[in-house]
Amino acid sequence: AAVLGDPQAKVRRAAVRGLARRDGREAIPLLVARLAEEKESVVALDIRDALNRLTGKEFGDADLWRSWWEANKDRFTGPAARDDSGRAYFFELSLRTDRVAFLIDVSASMNRTDERGVSRLEEAARELGTTLGGLPPGARFTVLAFAAEIRRFPDDAQGALAPQRPGDRTAAAEAVAWLRKLKPAGATNTYGALMEALYDDAFAPDAIVLLSDGNPYRCAWRGETWSEHEQILGAVREANADRGARIHTVALLSGARAEDEDEDAQGAADFLRRLARENGGDFREVR
Fold it and tell me: For residue 37, how many other CB atoms are within 10 A of its CB?
């Protein structure tokens, strides 16, 4: 319990994850008490996620959690079915976030089409539109499209849209239209996109969602050049150690040739799986 009050957010986050695996009757009151005191958005999100896993319930406010626990603690036996209402999803990844950066690969291979004739970029754009429309009111987002160069939506000084208003899908539509206008070409600067998101102090995302269909290739950022998976994973771990952003990843491999013919599909999936696992996120492979 004392660790929940540690001055370092990363220590508190680790404590929350540990409590999420313990007996609910022991963990829930500790988490509810900490939620009332927690000032760091990303830690508060972790606590709400842990409480949801332990109880199957979804309350956004610490007072509501406290009232529910007082009324139910004597008969609590375990979690009911999880309540995922109010969450946004990206290729079935469940997102709980106030500030999210979407990193979308627009390298040449994103032109590849599936049996329906739909390109990978178009598939990503469609899914992005659905996800952005499902973000809760007040959430902020930004989109980084990366190939050899990195482009941002919206391209402004703050690097993030104003909080969304209920029912207003204008920003989502504009982001999707911007992404669809891009022409896939060039390398796959995954490292540069990750660093741009992690070091965006004006926005400071609590979640990063990275979609790619290939291995990092010709990566560069601020004069540094990286190529090996281990180099990139290590650099991201170091950059994210104090930021604590959850990094979710999607390997979009629709329209790929057979695995033994696709030169880097499996390597890309393995890299993205590790990237998510090492940074508190989830991974999906889409074929």
Answer: 10
